[in-house]
Amino acid sequence: MFKQLFEHLPKTKTFLFLFLLIVVVTLTYSNHFQNSFHFDDAHTIENNLFIQNIHNIPLFFKDGTTFSSLPQNQSYRPIVSASLAFDYWLGNGYNLFYFHWSSFILFLLQGVLMFFLIFKLLDISYKNSWNFYIASIATLWYMLHPANAETINYIIARSDLQSTFFLLLGLVLYIFSPFCKKTFLYLLPVGIGILAKPSAVTFAPLLFFYILMFEEKISFLSVFKKENLKRVGGVFIKTIPAFIFCIIMYKWVDAFTPKTWQSGGASTFNYMISQPFVILHYFTTFFLPFGLSADTDWEPLQTIWNIKFFIGLLFISMMILIAILFSKDERLRPISFGISWFFIALLPSSSFIPFAEVLNDHRIYFPYIGLVISVCWAVGLLLLKYQKQFQSSIKNYQAVVIASVLFLLSGYAYGVRQRNKVWNTEETLWKDVAVKSPKNARGLMNYGLSQMRKGNYPEAESYFLQALSMWSEYSFLYVNMGVLKESTGDYINAESYFKTAIQKGASYPDSWYFYGRFLNNVNRNEEAIEKLTKAIEISPAHLAARLELMKLYYKIGDWNNLLQAAKTTLQTIPGNAEAENYMNMANEQISK
Fold this sequence. Notes:
There is one protein chain. The protein is 69% helix and 0% strand. It has 592 residues and is mainly α. The relative contact order is 0.09. The termini are far apart. It has two domains: 421 residues, no CATH class; 119 residues, Serine Threonine Protein Phosphatase 5, Tetratricopeptide repeat (Alpha Horseshoe). The radius of gyration is 27 Å and the shape is elongated.
């Protein structure tokens, strides 16, 4: 395989570029390694007791409920959970550096795979001395793109990183390793990718288009020509193993996904008609990555009779037309393939599964690989075609091209470092969201939370009330208002908010946990036990609720229940210091 990787590539120059790639990208991301946990990291990492014991790794493959302490978010992603447990073990706790570093290493390796893949696609289509440089620029552009910083900074979004990396690895193995191709070993990393995030099942259609366009050299327009039917049938036969494997893996993931999981979206129709304009937004963000937000305030369209729907539909139609027409010319096929990649990779998040957020910047991590191939090859071909004209009309043409590329990449690298700063703390992240997405109730709430943690209660309450005026059914807002009122000594209103939180979010463990904690703090012990027990019943992985219940049993001297609570906690996380301490104290009291 090593020989095939470097076929038509200058080894020394390639190694120098890969070294440069690693150094530049690492320096660019050097200010992100201590960035905080954010958003869904809370229930998948911080409050998920299962990742605190590396011996739970086999359990992740058997039980999807171990992924999150929130039943609504419990999806089957054992590779992600296993990597988090490894990071926790390696860092001896919640050491942010290890959680970021393990993702970042995979990101760098993905960059290496991308370079070889892109160069191969270009070289198959049109051999020339520029291919090395175009592949290098395309790889660097992708690695330094500010939109990708959303995925690299957001720890639980490593599911996108892992699924993308292993899909790429499978494709590279198929293309460069005759042994893996013959023995179907290229499917092994694809399976791992699907166990990180099901979107990796798109490997099968991507492989189909690769074989069709680059091995069989068939354009989209000639697929149905009589003389090509046998060859097209051969493409189907070659990709049948990949399609069968991906379908089986998808069914496997679906079977192990807890029934409590919810996509979060309300209307499939409204979500679908919103996606054409969202896809156009993703496309424009590739060139102008301004206004990136961790949590946007975009709302789904309510009807197709909206100008955004037709603009988005027109854009998609034009892109598909370009992909079809460009597939006719062998030299243009990387552009066609890249556009196909872009749309195929968007299918899992921009089709018929309605998610809570209409768009999300970390969803474009995988699709942008196709877009960077298309754009860089299109620009490269234009420069090649009009090289003589440019050289005659532009003094120092080569220097101008190099300076332009460096300026572009430097600007994108600067953008990455700015996004890293935004993701630094909860306060910096949600302040950015509140400014850029002022109609996002969740963003306003989370920024209010950052102020509440600082003791800035009036400011926090102001943001909570703004959010409540927009989203009166959001149970977490009532939880946070209850916590705020408790902190300011307003116990009557605090309890009222906690009760409303349970009414509006009875299926969420936090509604019960925070009310139980409040009841414990005001010494209403029996009621507190009932609420905390309910939180644990809903989510056995909710560590905070377990610790609060043990604290309560210790306070009232209920040693038998304390012992039982400590034992069940230690069954999941052996060595937990607080649980061991409570168990020892309970044993001492019982033995007296």
